Amino acid sequence: MNAGGDHADDEPREKCGVVGVSLAGRDAARPLYYALYALQHRGQESAGIVTHDGFQQHSHVERGLVGDAFEAGDLESLAGSTGIGHVRYPTAGSLDKSCAQPFSVSFKSGSLGLSHNGNLVNADEVREELAAAGHAFTSDGDTEVIAHDLARNLLEEDLVRAVKHTMNRIHGSYSLAITHDDTVLGVRDPMGNRPLCLGKLEDGYVLASESAAIDTLDGELIRDVRPGELVVLEPDGSGYDTYQLVERDSTAHCFFEHVYFARPDSVIDGDLVYEVRRELGRKLWEESGVESDVVMPVPDSGRAFASGYADAGAETTADGDPRPEDDDGIEFAEGLMKNRYVGRTFIMPTQDERERAVRLKLNPIRSTVEGKSVTIIDDSIVRGTTSTQLVELVREAGAEEVHLRIGAPPIVAPCYFGIDMATREELIAADKSTEEIRERIEADSLSYLSIDAVAEALDASRADLCLGCVTGEYPFDVEGEATDRPVDTPSTDAPAADD
Ligand code: AMP
């Protein structure tokens, strides 16, 4: 979906998962289905698979979780040893099946299937140009815009040039798994905003948003797809070719993938997400540790952070001095129990429902908190609903003091590139200081992690990260928003074949 200023806040912003496989002689549908299961956390609204059997394309796209979207017969009808898959979760707007993916289309020079994670910033402009050239659109999503642009280029040039020209035309965030007939492609935008990685299977190759999907298929992670790179899998599963089609001076990796969105067991841009989260927790202790009786995570999102925080707290005191040997530091406890059958609080549409969902989802263990000073660790505060409810719950269970430590900086602005972050009006930190937020959530103390600590934990310079949601300045040109670097000017004419 196209991005824009605050006026665009009611439009869907897709946080999605993509996968593609090319196998030697074995049907791709089942591995794709398993991989989508591994990526389920990246989208719960719809799931789909497109395969190609060498003659024709097959597609099955349905609303719901992966387990509900496919029946055994559906997988059998998805013939062919190459294909792609997608899980999608639009955060607002209609639950329109025409936006569910993979998007598939047949045209003069073959068939295309497209799975997209991210958001373009110039989709409207490209759509208008294509519509003027006679392309008819069936959805208002930006994925279809990419498909049509690619289809148009493919009428005139070979696959690699066609992809390159589409990459020069579209701007914004995109990790793509594409089928062109029985060839599977992976493309990552030139800034590498969303993750995409390449893996080897026993009898083929796989492209996936996260390496956890490769693990699920008993495969081996080869590496991340590089920003601006095209990877083409051989249709017979025997190998792959890569082309560095676009180069940029900086990257814009989304730091929030590491903080919240990705699975902790995934390796993204070379780092195991779990270890990054533990390191963020360590830094949280170093920056703002508080001596309390117990430290406990908000399950599951705060767990790795709390473990790093408690480890660092066992080594040094909150003042940064080595901890004396007779001082055990802070007890780490699982003081909050999670009802695993309640979905993410975020998907509740009204504030009232969101508050109830937190109570349904989390319950304190009285003996861990009663009469104690307690530090609760979570990865992020978005609207403030979870923290407000938790502080209250933990106090009601008898805690004497409740401190809150957050493993990310304050989220002050929306995400336009694939993560549902709520609107500016809803974001508690958009117009409040940390002290005002502390008062609002009634914690005894509250600290967030600094942006510099995030960059250090990711071993990246700030200039190579997308920090839009914590600075309000974006790496792509979003209408009505500030940018943090010189951004590309989208070309309005079809680019000349320069290669
Ligand atoms: P909130 O209650 O709105 O402040 O949201 C904070 C809680 O939601 C934290 O426990 C986070 O782990 C979790 N969270 C953060 N970002 C997201 C997101 N984009 N989608 C769903 N949950 C999120």
TrEMBL record:
The keyword Iron-sulfur applies. GO terms for biological process: 'de novo' IMP biosynthetic process; purine nucleobase biosynthetic process. Residues 488-499 have a biased composition (Low complexity). Pfam families: GATase_6. Its cofactor is Mg(2+); [4Fe-4S] cluster. Mg(2+) binds at residues 301, 378-379. Its EC number is 2.4.2.14. The keyword DNA-binding does not apply. Coiled coil: none annotated. [4Fe-4S] cluster binds at residues 254, 415, 466, 469. PROSITE patterns: GATASE_TYPE_2. InterPro entries: GATase_2_dom (IPR017932), Ntn_hydrolases_N (IPR029055), PRTase-like (IPR029057), PRTase_dom (IPR000836), PurF (IPR005854), PurF_N (IPR035584). The active site is at residue 16. Keywords: 4Fe-4S, Glutamine amidotransferase, Glycosyltransferase, Iron, Iron-sulfur, Magnesium, Metal-binding, Purine biosynthesis, Transferase. Pathway: Purine metabolism; IMP biosynthesis via de novo pathway; N(1)-(5-phospho-D-ribosyl)glycinamide from 5-phospho-alpha-D-ribose 1-diphosphate: step 1/2. One of its GO terms (molecular function) is 4 iron, 4 sulfur cluster binding. It catalyses: 5-phospho-beta-D-ribosylamine + L-glutamate + diphosphate = 5-phospho-alpha-D-ribose 1-diphosphate + L-glutamine + H2O. Residues 16-236 form the Glutamine amidotransferase type-2 domain. Catalyzes the formation of phosphoribosylamine from phosphoribosylpyrophosphate (PRPP) and glutamine. In the C-terminal section; belongs to the purine/pyrimidine phosphoribosyltransferase family. This is Amidophosphoribosyltransferase. It comes from Halorubrum rubrum. The gene is purF.
